[in-house]
C-alpha cells in the first residue's frame, strides 16, 4: 500500500504551504508499486557515518522492504558505489547517472517510494532541502518525494548547534519531516571528542523507517513512529530540570537533575505535531528548535510559568525535579562563614502538580516520582492525591538510570495501583511511550478551561 493510498491528499508537509491548495496525492502524480513489499529510498549523505549505510540497507531488506539508493557526491568520498550497490542488491543513483541520456527522469523514478530516509544527513543537505534547492540528484529527488521523509543527521556538535542548521531543521519539521537523533557519543574525527551529533545506529534507523511504512489501524501512521502527527493541534507543556532555592546570592539548595528526560519529552511531542512549551530550570542543554522555551530558577518561578502556559494546554508533563523547600527568608547579601552549626529556616514550596490537578478539567496530567522503597504504592497514592492520569516512577539508586544519564527505567503507575514496568531504554524511548500512553487519554480537540 502506498503512502498516497494511506494518507490521500492531506500530506502533513503540504498543508498551508501552497496558494493553490495542497499537493495532489502520489497516486495522481504517478503510480507507486503495488508489490506487497514497501519501497524505501535511502539517500546517503557526505559524512563519515556514510560507512554505516550498507548496514542500514541490509537491515531494511531483512525487514521486508525494497530499497533504492542515492549517494551524494560527498558520500562517495567515504564509501564506494560498489559497497552500496551490493548491500542494496541494485544500482546506486549518483549525479553522474542523473546526467546520462535515459528515457526517464531519475529523480522522479527514485521518488516513487513509500518512505525516504537521509542517512548521515549533513548540514549541506539540510540547508539545500530547507531552501528548495535541486542542484543534484539527492535534492531534486527530495523535492519530488510525496511520502514520509526521515532525517538522520551526522555532524560535529558545533555545526549541529549552529542557529542556521537548527533553523533549517525546524523548517523541515514544520513541513512534516521527521528526525531521528543526532545522539550523544564520540565523533569519528581524531581530536573532536564527543558530544551531540553522532548518527543513530543502523538498527534504530531501520526500525524507525519500517515503522513509517508499516500499515496501521484505520490507515493512520503508527503512534509514536517518526513522522507520526498524532499530537497535531495539541498544546503540550513540559517542565524539566532542577530548581534552585537561594539561601543568599551565591548559595542555594538544588539537585543534580540534568533536564534530559523533560527535554526528550518536549522534543518528542514537537516531532509528533504538538505546539510545545518547555519550562526548564538551570541546565546545560541548548534550547531545542521548534518549540517555546522558558528558563526559570526557583520553584516559585516554575509555578508561575507552568500555570500560565497550562491555561490552554491539552497535556502537561511534569518531569522537573522541584525542590520541596526554600529559604523562608533568603539573605540579600553573602553570609560570612561562621564557626559551629548554622540553622536555616526552610518553608515548603507550592505543590505545582497538585495545583494543576485541582483545576485539571479535560487536560491530561502526567507526573514523575522518585522513590527508594515502596515505590508503586507511593506513586499510586501520589496520582490519586494530585489527580494525575498516571505517574512515571523511577529509582535513583537503580543501575544505569542515575541523574544525568541518557537512559532510564521507569514504571507507569495509575491511580488505581495498576502498573507496568518498562524495560531499560533511552530517555527518548521513554518519552515516546509516555506520549503514546498520554495520547490515549486525550479527549477530542476542544478548548480547555482556564486555570483559576
Distance from N terminus to C terminus (CA atoms, Å) equals: 49 Å
Envelope shape:
elongated
Poorly predicted runs are: 1-34, 215-222
| Count of alpha and pi helical runs | 16
- Quote the beta fraction: 15-25%
- In CATH terms, the superfamily of the largest domain is Flavin prenyltransferase-like
Structural class label: alpha/beta
- How do the strands line up in the largest sheet? 13-12-9-14-17-18-20-21
Q: Tell me roughly what share of residues is in helical segments.
A: 25-40%
What's the structural blueprint in terms of helices and strands?
Layout lengths: L2 H5 L18 H4 L9 E6 L8 H10 L3 E6 L9 H8 L3 E2 L1 H4 L7 H4 L5 E7 L1 H8 L6 H8 L4 E5 L3 H4 L2 H12 L3 E2 L3 E4 L7 E5 L3 H12 L21 E6 L4 E2 L5 E2 L6 H12 L3 E6 L11 E4 L3 H11 L5 E4 L6 E3 L18 E3 L3 H7 L5 E7 L4 H12 L3 E5 L12 E2 L2 E3 L5 E3 L3 E2 H15 L11
Parallel strand pairs: 1-2, 1-4, 2-3, 4-5, 5-6, 9-12, 9-14, 12-13, 14-17, 17-18
Antiparallel strand pairs: 7-8, 10-11, 15-16, 18-20, 19-22, 20-21
Would you write up a description of this structure?
- With 452 residues, the chain is of the alpha/beta class.
- It folds into 2 domains: 217 residues, Rossmann fold (3-Layer(aba) Sandwich), CATH 3.40.50.1950; 200 residues, CoaB-like (Rossmann fold).
- The chain is built from 16 helices and 22 strands.
- The strands form 6 sheets. Strands 13-12-9-14-17-18-20-21 form an 8-stranded mixed sheet, sandwiched between helices. It has a 6-stranded parallel sheet with strand order 3-2-1-4-5-6, with helices on both faces.
- Helix 3 packs parallel to helix 4, helix 7 packs across helix 10 and helix 12 crosses helix 16.
- 44% of the residues are buried.
Amino acid at each position: 500500500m502506498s503512502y498516497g493510498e494511506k494518507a490521500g491528499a492531506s500530506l502533513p508537509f503540504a498543508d498551508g504551504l501552497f496558494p493553490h491548495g495542497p499537493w495532489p496525492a502520489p497516486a495522481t502524480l504517478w503510480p507507486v508499486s503495488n508489490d506487497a513489499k514497501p519501497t524505501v529510498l535511502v539517500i546517503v549523505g557526505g559524512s563519515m557515518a556514510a560507512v554505516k549505510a550498507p548496514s542500514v540497507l541490509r537491515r531494511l531488506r531483512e525487514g521486508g522492504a525494497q530499497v533504492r539508493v542515492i549517494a551524494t557526491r560527498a558520500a562517495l568520498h567515504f564509501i564506494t558505489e560498489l559497497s552500496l550497490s551490493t548491500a542494496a542488491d541494485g544500482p546506486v543513483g549518483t549525479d553522474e547517472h542523473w546526467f546520462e541520456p535515459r528515457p526517464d527522469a531519475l529523480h522522479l523514478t527514485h521518488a516513487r517510494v513509500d518512505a525516504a530516509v537521509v542517512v548521515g544527513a549533513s548540514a549541506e543537505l539540510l540547508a539545500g532541502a530547507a531552501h528548495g534547492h535541486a542542484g543534484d540528484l539527492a535534492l531534486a529527488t527530495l523535492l519530488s518525494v510525496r511520502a514520509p521523509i526521515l532525517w538522520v543527521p551526522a555532524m560535529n556538535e558545533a555545526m549541529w548547534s549552529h542557529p542556521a542548521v537548527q533553523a533549517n531543521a525546524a523548517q523541515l519539521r514544520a513541513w512534516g519531516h521527521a528526525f531521528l537523533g543526532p545522539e550523544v557519543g564520540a565523533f569519528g574525527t581524531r581530536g573532536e571528542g564527543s558530544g551531540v551529533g553522532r548518527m543513530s545506529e543502523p538498527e534504530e534507523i531501520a526500525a524507525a523507517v519500517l515503522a513509517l511504512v508499516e500499515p496501521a489501524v484505520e490507515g493512520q501512521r503508527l503512534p509514536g513512529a517518526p513522522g507520526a502527527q498524532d499530537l497535531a493541534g495539541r498544546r503540550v507543556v513540559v517542565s524539566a530540570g532542577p530548581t534552585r532555592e537561594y539561601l543568599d546570592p551565591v548559595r542555594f539548595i538544588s539537585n543534580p537533575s540534568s533536564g534530559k528526560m523533560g527535554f526528550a519529552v518536549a522534543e518528542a511531542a514537537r516531532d509528533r505535531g504538538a505546539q510545545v512549551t518547555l519550562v526548564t530550570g538551570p541546565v546545560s542543554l541548548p534550547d531545542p528548535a521548534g518549540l517555546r522555551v522558558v528558563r526559570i530558577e526557583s520553584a516559585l518561578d516554575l509555578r508561575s510559568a507552568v500555570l500560565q502556559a497550562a491555561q490552554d494546554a491539552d497535556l502537561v508533563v511534569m518531569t522537573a525535579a522541584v525542590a520541596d523547600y526554600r529559604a523562608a527568608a533568603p539573605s540579600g547579601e553573602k553570609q560570612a562563614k561562621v564557626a559551629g552549626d548554622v540553622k536555616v529556616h526552610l518553608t515548603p514550596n507550592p505543590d505545582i502538580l497538585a495545583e494543576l490537578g485541582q483545576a485539571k478539567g479535560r487536560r491530561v496530567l502526567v507526573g514523575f516520582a522518585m522513590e527508594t522503597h515502596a515505590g508503586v504504592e507511593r506513586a499510586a497514592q501520589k496520582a490519586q492525591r494530585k489527580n494525575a492520569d498516571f505517574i512515571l516512577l523511577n529509582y535513583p539508586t537503580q543501575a544505569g538510570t542515575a541523574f544525568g544519564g541518557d537512559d532510564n527505567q521507569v514504571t507507569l503507575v495509575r491511580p488505581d495501583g495498576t502498573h507496568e514496568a518498562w524495560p531499560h531504554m533511552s530517555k527518548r524511548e521513554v518519552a515516546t511511550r509516555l506520549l503514546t500512553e498520554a495520547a490515549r487519554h486525550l479527549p477530542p480537540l476542544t478548548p480547555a478551561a482556564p486555570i483559576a
